[in-house]
Design goal:
The complex is a heterotrimer of chains A (about 375), B (about 130) and C (about 350). Chain A is of the alpha/beta class and about 375 residues long. Chain A is built from 15 helices and 11 strands. Chain A has helices spanning about 20-35, 55, 65-70, 85-100, 120-130, 135, 145-160, 160-175, 190-195, 225-230, 260-270, 290-295, 305-310, 330, 335-350, and strands spanning about 5-10, 45-50, 80, 105-115, 200, 205, 215-220, 235-245, 280, 365-370, 375-385. In chain A, strands 3-2-4-7-1-8-11-10-9 form a 9-stranded mixed beta sheet, with helices on both faces. A two-stranded antiparallel ribbon of chain A has the order 5-6. Chain A starts with a strand and ends with a strand. Chain B has a domain at about 50-130: Beta Barrel (OB fold (Dihydrolipoamide Acetyltransferase, E2P)), CATH 2.40.50. Chain B contains 2 helices and 8 strands, in the order H-H-E-E-E-E-E-E-E-E. Chain B has helices at about 5, 10-15, and strands spanning about 15-20, 25-30, 45-50, 50-60, 75-80, 85-90, 105-115, 120-130. Chain C has a single domain, classed as Thiolase/Chalcone synthase (Peroxisomal Thiolase, Chain A, domain 1, 3-Layer(aba) Sandwich), CATH 3.40.47.10. The termini of chain C are far apart. Classes of the chains: A alpha/beta (about 375), B mainly beta (about 130), C alpha/beta (about 350). Chains A and B meet through helix 5, helix 6, helix 7 and strand 5 of A and strand 4, strand 5, strand 6 and strand 8 of B.
Chain lengths: ~375, ~130, ~350
């Protein structure tokens, strides 16, 4: 198995991109990644693109061909990967596998979602298809509702408070202010969150990540080739993926995602690192409770102490384990299919020391954590700055 | 949800018919057709659940999806049935502030949705506080 | 005919609206209406309830009380004037929900407020003829009263189910006989595709309700050679609280005989459910040997009268399912705004 490195990353602006189409977004992110890598597009051997639901959002399937066509990549193989909100993370993992196996050399891992071409309620309905249609959505459960069930139970078992949930949103909005690509560039307060309208109790509007358009792109190469192309080599040290029941109700626990723990265990082992070695993490904060559960499940604190860790500021930039320096899904935005790749983009920029005002000093090892649905799919990557 | 997709689950939705593995005796609802523990040695057969259980977690849904707007705010819960399996269901006939974790509930037969004004009406299980 | 009641069950929704709440909206005098209709409040179906869900809950209670295998039910008839579908039976939904399918016949009936008792008669005939072992008749409605119409104060929701079988030790009551009185009298109707019924105002009284209820009662008493004093209880269709008391009085029944089965003051007019829930309320408290007169009324118009003799079996079966009083006492009062939301009167 060959070692794999990231040689270029690119991101569109995240937000409500009324004037940019699906295909234009992909070209924009891809163009930036190629420019960042400093290679000729003609050297690309294959592409994996994560996308949850172009079928529902823009009534377009077969997007792999669409993208290959409009990116001028014909005839390289292009493959769409879908795992709801973890589509991007899985596309990245498929690209890593393709390079590591030796089948391809230069491979693009991309993610994209165009969500604002439909009304908000249609987008919400599309997102709910990540849940079990027959036994969750059909009976009236929404996507925020499923996470609200976890939040309620977490509060019940561990005394986690609404204020602690709110602090996740406050922190991530703060971080987003230093990220020019983020959807929001505004600070919010705990009171703002607690006074926002209820969506599914105990979750309020500002506990939820927004509806976002965006695309992200990362270009991978075998490490030995990467050394010739880039100055700062970013290695993909570990990749871990795990599955779980699609329905929340079928799990033993409601207060964490067992697939996160499993995927992290695999990724840590492959990267030969311990949780203490992680300098920063981009975690899947689709809701505030998601970040609290993620930092517990990844091992940054004990189960039940995620609220406290957040409250103490340990997950802020400058804390012991900065989480979601990019602003996370909450502040940067959550174009579902793009999110997993966008997390990689942030970690790469941090490890290269290119994160500007949100830079984590001396960051050498970073982690991404991308969740599909309510935890039916989780993928964790450990990235490391190479010598 | 199209007619055939709803229709084929009528026994499960009307009467909480799950499945039971004859090898390990584990009961599943929603029904499973392969026992995750016994796999090929599992013997799954229909099993009717009693419709009583308790609330494991709940949420009040204020922003309702299409087809549920007229019911908002409504309570969704994960309910652990007395036989063991857990399911997601609406708790009906209660005010949003009334439900607590641990409350006993029982199954009722209710209208779950409909396909617009002239499509089929879908019925099935909800729960109410016992 | 040697048939009897093997089980019975009712269902009344949780929600109520008081006369005052409705009167307030239309600037009407609530006290005068309450006196005039002899009614305090009416039941209101929840936003996820309809005639099918009410029928299923009542049917499940009836099966519980009967303690029979639902597979032995050979016929189900659901009487209502608010079937959720114009075409597609409510009865098949009930049959599936009580696991009586597929070896049975089923159909929906419509005869204004007496469609449920018409179902009882059909089941009596089929059981009596040996065609089926048990038959289930249900009367259930989520009654429609146009906003502002006097019907709005009374039109409510509820249902009753009766399982008919051969008379014998497993019966909780024998049905001694039945008699119907039917004419073409357009006192109340709802045209196809119209959401609310229309009625003839005072014409619904004397030539319609009273003529048919009294004639059916007289006919049955004559047939059985019985007099009002031979009955412990009497239940008449109850479009409001007043009509049944007046009908009973004209027939020679006392208020005491009628009050146990008079539920309209607390739950309104449940239409097809009304006389069946009234009968259930009496069975909830009757003793073996008590005789009950039941007279339904359906606009259009007709009345079915039954003489029911309570058997020893009642004692063992009564507590197997919730009683009418349980449903009446468990309630949440809603305001008119919530009522319009629940009844889907708000237009988006």
């Amino acid at each position: 198995m060959r070692k794999v490195a990231v040689i270029g990353v690119g991101l569109t602006k995240f937000g409500e991109l009324w004037d940019v189409s699906f295909r234009r977004m992909m070209l924009e992110a891809g163009g930036r990644a190629i420019e960042d890598a400093g290679i000729d597009g003609g050297r690309i051997d294959a592409m994996y693109v994560g996308n949850m639901s172009a079928g529902q959002f823009i009534r377009q399937e077969h997007i792999a061909s669409l993208i290959a066509d409009h990116a001028g990549l014909i005839p390289v193989p292009c493959t769409r990967v879908e795992a709801a909100c973890a589509s991007g993370g899985l596309a990245f993992r498929q690209a890593v596998i393709a390079v590591a196996s030796g089948i391809h050399d230069i491979v693009v891992a991309a993610g994209i979602e165009k969500m604002t071409d439909v009304l908000a309620e249609q987008a919400t309905e599309a997102l709910a298809t990540a849940a079990d249609q027959e036994w969750e959505a059909y009976v009236g459960a929404t996507f925020p509702g499923v996470y609200a069930l976890m939040a309620r139970r977490h509060m019940y078992e561990f005394g986690t408070t609404e204020e602690q949930l709110a602090r996740v949103a406050v922190k991530n909005h703060h971080n987003a202010c230093f990220n020019p690509c983020a959807q929001y560039q505004t600070e919010i307060t705990v009171e703002d969150v607690l006074n926002s309208s209820p969506v599914c109790s105990p979750l309020r509007l500002l506990d939820c990540s927004p509806i976002t358009d965006g695309a992200a792109c990362a270009i991978l190469a075998p490490a030995d080739l990467a050394r010739k192309i880039t100055d700062t080599q970013i290695l993909v040290a570990g990749v871990g993926q795990a599955s779980d029941t699609i329905s929340l109700h079928d799990r033993q626990t409601l207060t964490g995602l067992p697939a996160t723990t499993k995927a992290a265990e695999i990724a840590y082992k492959m990267a030969e690192v311990g949780v203490r070695d992680i300098d920063l993490a981009e975690v899947h904060d689709c809701f505030t409770i998601s970040e609290i559960m993620a930092i517990e499940d990844l091992g940054f604190c004990k189960k039940g102490e995620g609220g406290k860790l957040t409250e103490q500021g340990e997950t802020a930039i400058g804390g012991s384990i900065p989480v979601n320096t990019s602003g996370g899904l909450k502040g940067k935005g959550h174009p579902v299919g793009a999110t997993g790749v966008a997390q990689v983009v942030e970690v790469v920029q941090q490890l290269r020391g290119e994160a500007g005002k949100r830079q984590v000093d001396g960051a050498e090892i970073g982690l991404t954590h991308n969740v599909g649905g309510s935890g039916g799919t989780v993928v964790v990557h450990v990235l490391r700055r190479g010598g | 949800m199209g007619v055939p997709r709803f229709w084929r689950e009528i026994p499960n939705r009307y009467n909480l018919i799950g499945t039971r593995c004859g090898t390990c005796n584990k009961i599943f609802f929603p029904p499973r057709y392969i026992c995750p523990s016994c796999r090929r040695t599992g013997k799954l057969e229909p099993y009717k659940l009693g419709g009583k259980g308790k609330i494991v977690s709940y949420t009040v849904t204020y922003v309702a999806p299409n087809g549920f707007e007229d019911q908002a705010p409504y309570v969704m819960a994960i309910i652990e049935l007395d036989e063991g399996p857990k399911l997601t269901a609406q708790v009906t006939d209660c005010s949003p502030g009334q439900v607590r974790i641990g409350d006993r509930v029982e199954m009722v037969f209710r209208r779950m949705g409909q396909e617009g004004e002239d499509g089929p009406i879908y019925y099935g299980y909800k729960f109410r506080l016992a | 005919m040697e048939v009897g009641i093997v089980g019975y069950g009712v269902y009344i929704p949780l929600y109520r609206i008081k006369v005052e709440e409705i009167a307030k909206v239309w600037g009407a005098d609530a006290e005068r209406i309450k006196r005039g209709l002899f009614l305090e409040e009416k039941s209101v179906p929840g936003p996820d309830e309809d005639t099918a869900t009410i029928a299923v809950e009542a049917a499940r209670n009836a099966v519980k009380r009967a303690g029979i295998n639902p597979q032995d039910i050979g016929a189900i008839y659901v009487g209502s004037e608010s079937h959720p579908y114009a075409v597609k039976p409510t009865a098949t939904i009930v049959a599936e929900a009580i696991e009586a399918t597929p070896d049975l016949t089923a159909a929906d009936y419509e005869f204004a407020c007496k469609a449920g008792t018409a179902g009882i008669q059909t089941c009596m005939g089929m059981v009596g003829a040996g065609m089926i072992k048990y038959g289930m008749a249900i009367g259930a409605d989520t009654a429609q009263g146009a906003p502002g119409d006097p019907l709005e104060y009374t039109a409510s929701a509820g249902g009753g189910a009766v399982i008919v079988g051969k008379d014998g030790s497993q019966c909780l009551a024998a049905i001694e006989d039945t008699y119907s009185y039917t004419t073409d009298t357009p006192d109340f109707w709802r045209r196809e595709m119209r959401p609310y019924p229309k009625h003839g105002g005072r014409f619904t009284g004397k030539p319609a309700y009273f003529k048919h209820v009294l004639s059916a009662a007289h006919g049955l008493l004559r047939k059985l050679q019985l007099a009002p004093q031979d009955f412990t209880y009497a239940v008449f269709h109850q479009p409001n609280g007043k009509f049944p008391l007046q009908a009973g009085k004209e027939l020679g029944f006392t208020k005491e005989q009628i009050m146990s089965g008079l539920l309209t003051p607390k739950i309104g007019n449940t239409y097809s459910g009304a006389s069946m829930i009234g009968l259930a309320a009496i069975l909830d408290q009757a003793k073996p040997g008590d005789r009950i007169l039941v007279v339904s009324f359906g606009s259009g118009a007709g009345s079915d009268a039954f003489s029911i003799l309570v058997r020893d079996g009642i004692e063992a079966k009564r507590d197997a399912a919730p009683m009418v009083a349980d449903y009446i006492n468990l309630k949440i009062n809603v305001d008119y705004a919530t009522y319009t939301k629940f009844r889907q009167l708000l237009v988006r």
